[in-house]
Amino acid sequence: MLIVLKLKAAAIGAAVIAPLLAASLAPPAASTVDGTVSLPASSFSYRTAGDFSRDGKPVAAPLRNIHPAGDLAIMKSQVTAAAYAQCMADGACPRVTMPAGSLDVPVVGVSWHDANAYAAWISRKTGIPHRLPTDEEWTFAAAEKARDEALPLVDPADPALAWIARYDAEAARGRPAVAKPQPTGSFGINSKGLADVAGNVWEWTSTCFVRVSLDAGTERITNTNCGVRVVEGAHRTYMTDFVRDPRTGGCAAGVPPANLGFRLVVENRWPAIALFERAIGRFRRS
Amino acid sequence: MGAAVAAMMAAAPAAFADDLKLPRERVDLVAPPFVHPHEQATKSGPKIVEFKLTVREKEVVIDDAGTKFQAMTFNGSMPGPMMVLHEGDYMELTLVNPATNTMPHNIDLHAATGGLGGGALTHVNPGEQTVLRWKATRPGVFVYHCAPEGMIPWHVVSGMHGTVMVLPRDGLKDRDGKPLHYDRIYYIGENDLYVPKDENGKYKTYESPGESYADTMEVMRKLIPTHEVFEGRVGALTGKNALTAKVGETVMIVHSQANRDTRPHLIGGHGDYVWETGKFNNPPERDLETWFIRGGSAGAALYTFREPGIYAYVNHNLIEAVELGATAHIKVEGKWNDDLMKSIVPAAPIPPDKIGAAKPVDAVIAR
Ligand SMILES: [Cu+2]
């Protein structure tokens, strides 16, 4: 099996890809290789994404303790312009604007669909399933860089108070000093070994926007909108999936992400076996 | 031509200013969106009001992407400061062009009469200054701008424009002559910007205004701005810089655009009294939704806030507001009024048996 993998890596020939394979094959213990970081499962607290209300009035989303079922293998860095350019060259990713200078910067100006096209392409290329992280997974990997912003508690009879409070909170965040994507690694490494978390590039997740009612002590999803996905970074926000360049203005009062990019998780459930299955599948097809 | 007019003017008797024997007042200007302290109505007689504008050529940042722009400004801000005086007053304006600048400048005040609005008499090279006096004969809000021969539009869209407000001596009035006043005044100067791009579509930067001239003219001649901004940059009046007001306060918003048409609209509010063309001898219009500011003019609107929240004040060409930057926010604090607005049923799933139909109401018909 090892030989099969080596052949495969050689066939792909892309330097970017080999470390990904190595990482996914590594034992689930905490191990850091270039492409992906394998994070051992440990419990963490998570503020659920979405709009929560009780008796028709907005309330803070519940804070949960999450115990991941297994380890998480996630890219150490955001997908770069160079990597995305290869996917474009293969005709598998929609064309987006490439930076004028070095391509060793996160790809930005990508929609949720673009990110998924890349995930499908890299999965095909490597034989290893890649996908966008869920919001829970992103929060786990972001660790201390994840921002828990609960809605301030205000008089529910006055809708303007919550509105003004949220506006103030967003304004207080400020904006990144530079909007232009910076070379990978510019925003440091977090406690879990991930680079550039909550820098000036926000990341798409696979989590859909939900509206949840907490009436009568029961939690009930009243609406799920998968046309809008959770976007994570220096603050959490929700974006329509085809947006590439976030903006505010007009009626939309708030602070938008500076840039939209992404990083992927690698399915590490029995990675070797999953790979083996895929390899067999490939041979069968051919 | 400018030189000829200037020579002719210079031949006129000097020292008018000394002959006036009027009281003098010196005003320290403040940068927009604020306006220097002033009386809304005055009981005192005409006076000479002294102002000083210093031209500053400087590099500014005009959007969140950090796009750099070679600006030309009055007193360092885009727009230049608002200058307020009363009908019948004289403005004595000192225009300074420091030696550190690279270009000649002047000033054309739409409120002034004669001499190309002062443009013919105020041409100053770097290292020079000049003093102009003119009489305020018409009440209203008026644009002023730089108007150097051959380069007028370039200086204007590079930031050299501002507003003069000439108030009636007895203050503002509605169409029935009832006095109107404001608790706050905000001054919004809208600016269309034309920033050249390189072959990769990236905005180009230059070392000086002069170096940007040829490329900028090319973009200007296509008449499509790359940015349309309030107070010189995208986001100058949003977030931490949002304007503020309180429920019950009456706010005067003066809006000027020295070059291009715009259409202010207060999302969630109205214009209670609007001088769309900005001239106070015409009665203000009532209850407007959107008003039109012709390029090269200023308008004024009064609004009393009745409901708290975040208001967006935009150029209601919403493409220009959202994509190009012409958006301001006003944060209004106070008590919510359910009578004016109330959420009766917050967003919730459509009841399965009533899709598309309103809940039937039992009709009670009196016989
Ligand atoms: Cu000038």
Compile the SSE list and pairings.
The complex is a heterodimer of chains A (286) and B (367).
Chain A: H1 2-12, H2 17-25, E1 31-32, E2 36-39, E3 44-47, E4 51-54, E5 57-59, E6 63-66, E7 72-75, H3 81-89, H4 112-126, E8 130-131, H5 135-142, H6 159-173, E9 202-213, E10 220-232, E11 237-240, E12 260-261, E13 265-266, H7 271-285
Parallel strand pairs in A: 4-9, 9-12
Antiparallel strand pairs in A: 1-2, 2-7, 3-6, 4-5, 7-13, 8-13, 9-10, 10-11
Chain B: H1 2-11, H2 16-19, E1 24-26, E2 48-61, E3 68-74, E4 82-86, E5 90-97, E6 108-109, E7 128-135, E8 140-145, H3 152-157, E9 161-167, E10 172-173, E11 179-180, E12 184-193, H4 209-220, E13 227-230, E14 243-246, E15 250-257, E16 264-267, E17 271-275, E18 285-288, E19 297-304, E20 309-315, H5 318-322, E21 327-333
Parallel strand pairs in B: 1-2, 2-5, 4-9, 12-15, 14-21
Antiparallel strand pairs in B: 2-3, 5-7, 6-8, 8-9, 10-11, 12-13, 15-19, 16-20, 17-18, 17-19, 20-21
Copper (II) ion binds next to loops of chain B.
